[in-house]
């Protein structure tokens, strides 16, 4: 007696075979929450009732998008499902099945759920790649396992084309009125050049052409060069009834040095016909290279059209183009049309790289249009020998109609074609539905189009541009250019505390996708970009990068372009934040509102999604901000779960250009003073070796900076020290506008005052300096000050200027202005150590000093490097150059900023003479007024903590 275990198991399975996933995503048009359809006998058939969703194993599972990693190619979408099959209808080879002969490999299938707007949201639209009938041992449970793939799976297995892009553009389908066509792409060793048309004869040649020798036309296989050789092809007899026009066209490469004068480029022979008193027999195109640059026809490098009789005698007029064709890739067209008894013959040329055209025409009266007998390239004539030295030609054809010389579009020269437009064209050529997001023209310029299968050519474009390829409904392809990913608004925002997620999103900190050094190669030319600084720079974590580098097919191989491409990919590979590999949502959960459900179902590859209110005690405090790379779906009895494969969105979220008003370019600064958790003023200085400062233009405020993991909002930026001296003080200078108190030394207290417009140091005695000072924030500095005298110098000079790293009266650096008795102003960068003064650099202003007219001084010191400049304060702009530079390491400590004034023995000014100072500004360090804890972090920070933009702009590729 047989065991009852298999029978029990079968009964359990049958009891679980409910038709479709219940309550998963609303009701579809068939009354079920999901709709599964296959294409049978020319129509879509609903097979949802056959779909099995088992408690433990059966479900509809779907994947799509990029699943192999950040830099991987888009994979074909897949789906797995089980279909109830007791009558064998889902067994393709079962003759008793109702769909025998109608289903099989690549049967179209689609799965949809309601989109919430009265339509369908297709979760996959693909092709069945596998039908696998199955059953239990009792035969009471019979089903078929169905595997589905998107169109990418089939395209990946497609063959590479045998012919060039240009050959296919001319023949598939045949161009209108094509009578004769010789591609001339025959390989080396061929004994003839075959016609591409079944009724055409092969071309023959004289001399020894070098077949397949020139590969400069990106749309063509290599063409022959015609040094001392010519090609001729006879045109099979064709019906000329009603023909009123025709055109001969071919490709031509002219070397930079050109050809010999009157070399015959091409000849078109027609059936002899009367033309006035002559017999018309030949239309010739010849090259002009007259001696001395002047000739009977066109200038050097131009082409001329002529008409000849059977004896090759020229009759009628000739016409020449003006384009210099030397060094150009050309499409040449000879177009003849008749009106009444007059033929208009037009010579037209197209530079296939630039798109520039030129033309010239002649007319021939009292004639008729006759049949073309033959066409030749580089043929011998009575006035020239055969051949075009180092010239190449091919794709010679005849049409009994006239079309635009640009009728082949990008097929004539794909190099320079926008990547998005190439994908669009490739899909159109193969009849594949295509859609896109963004601007297809805002994609990188591609290089030549090789002979690869469609998907390889498309993926080549995707790799070059850096966008996302995706599958569409109706088994089509779509493309999302890289630029469309920039600065997106979030397509979906989920709340962690609102139970919107079906599982906890786990951040991952690893080195899986790090790339801080990359070499990009185009056309054999390579450039490398390396990120050395930052948390993921090579100086910090070592080198991460593709050993073999990255080869791209780009139109340009100049160094700047290659470095930009390498830098962009390094930018993507040095994102210093956690990634969330999977974010899962269950559409059946009550927290998912109808609006959210619609938004979730509408999410596309490359969309931006965020999660707010994540636990901040043990996770980073920032909003989870991710870009969707792919999707996994599972539909069962009780849920429709979507798991989105993600990577950080930040490298795409703050993209701009330098002249964009909203661009924010980062600088390297650090805290000069420690800040506690409640401080709203932060003192910052440039990091070691840096000099850049934060903007003080209020139009650029506010902006966010990050320090020690805390994001704070900068609402104002001010100089660390600023004093306009608009107050009134006596016996000292009081306190600067920014609050710091001035100290004074030298002379008496009454020698120091503020008069409402300037700080005054009165030189009541000689040979004793007057000094003012404020304790410095750090040894590096950048300061401005206006300096003048109350009177012109007499007897000897008056001296005033600014000081830095001033330890005492005997040790300091200074920029000293000598106001001389000749009213010149000499500026000196000086060092004083142990009372010994040394001039490090000197400069004389071109201006004449006027008492009370201020001279503006800028003094900058970084480590042992010092720079200074001086100019009249009334000038509209600061001079760009530094007038004084020096290197000195005698004093390295910060000490004080200030001023120093003196008159020396020999000066005969009155004791009331003074040096006056105004607009004293220390722009380095800076003070940032901030709002704390923008990202929820509140903490103290030590001096030296790096301060940088929280969201700097990255320059677009």
Summed up:
This protein has 957 residues and is mostly beta strands. 8% of the residues lie in helices and 40% in strands. It folds into 4 domains: 5-156, no CATH class; 176-406, Jelly Rolls (Sandwich), CATH 2.60.120; 412-485, Phage tail protein beta-alpha-beta fold; 667-727 and 736-741 and 752-761 and 771-957, Jelly Rolls, CATH 2.60.120.560.
Count of helices?
Answer: 9
Form type: flat
CATH class of the largest domain: Mainly Beta
Pick out the low-confidence regions.
1-24
Give the total of beta strands. Answer: 57
Helical proportion? Answer: under 10%
The number of domains: 4
What is the CA-CA span between the terminal residues?
75 Å
Strand content: 35-45%
Q: How is the quaternary structure best described?
A: single chain
Task: Give me the CATH fold name of the largest domain.
Answer: Jelly Rolls
Question: If you average the pLDDT, what whole number results?
Answer: 91
Q: In the CATH classification, which architecture of the largest domain applies?
A: Sandwich
By helix and strand content, what is the structural category? mainly beta
Q: What is the assigned CATH homologous superfamily of the largest domain?
A: Exo-inulinase, domain 1
User: How would you sum up the major sheet?
Assistant: 14 strands, mixed
Radius of gyration over alpha carbons?
41 Å
